[in-house]
Amino acid sequence: MEIGNSGAATGPVRTLLRLEALALLMAAVLLYAHLHASWPMFAILFLAPDLSMLAYFGGPRIGAIAYNTAHATIGPIVAAVLGYLSNWAILEAIGLIWLAHVGIDRALGFGLKYATSFGDTHLGRIRRAARRLEQPA
To answer: Tens digits of per-residue pLDDT, 46-62?
Structure first.
């Protein structure tokens, strides 16, 4: 894997990771449509994982743990599969909405966070968003 000095993927590897994330987004949305679940619910819950950013008020280490927990693919995959296997459509739908959110975030370059700063991610530094969160109030 190509990595820069920051520990983030660069070049073609970064592009591939972002394209995979776009595929994840598309697959989650298509499966959600196939489930015939509520689109208003999709719209309401789509940004819910970003509430994890509030943990940055506790510092970058706590913020990164919370953000990464809410933005790793394992949680939504487990939720969607458990929902499917238990015939619990609401859990399956929530898992797919959550996966779609992770997909769009990664496709846009918002990667998993390092504990050093909100802007330090596995997909590279997020400049503008990081400056807003890191400025003293």
So the answer is: 999 999 999 999 999 99
Return the beta strands (E) in 12-137 as ranges.
120-121, 124-125
Backbone CA torsion sign across 102, 105, 111, 116: negative
Amino acid at 52: S
Q: How many Å apart are CA 62 and CA 84, to the nearest integer?
A: 32
Distance CA 127, CA 129 (A): 6
pTM: 0.84
Q: Rounded to whole angstroms, how far apart are CA atoms 99 and 75?
A: 9
Rounded Cα–Cα distance for residues 95 and 137 (Å): 35
Residue 127, classed as helix, strand or coil, is helix
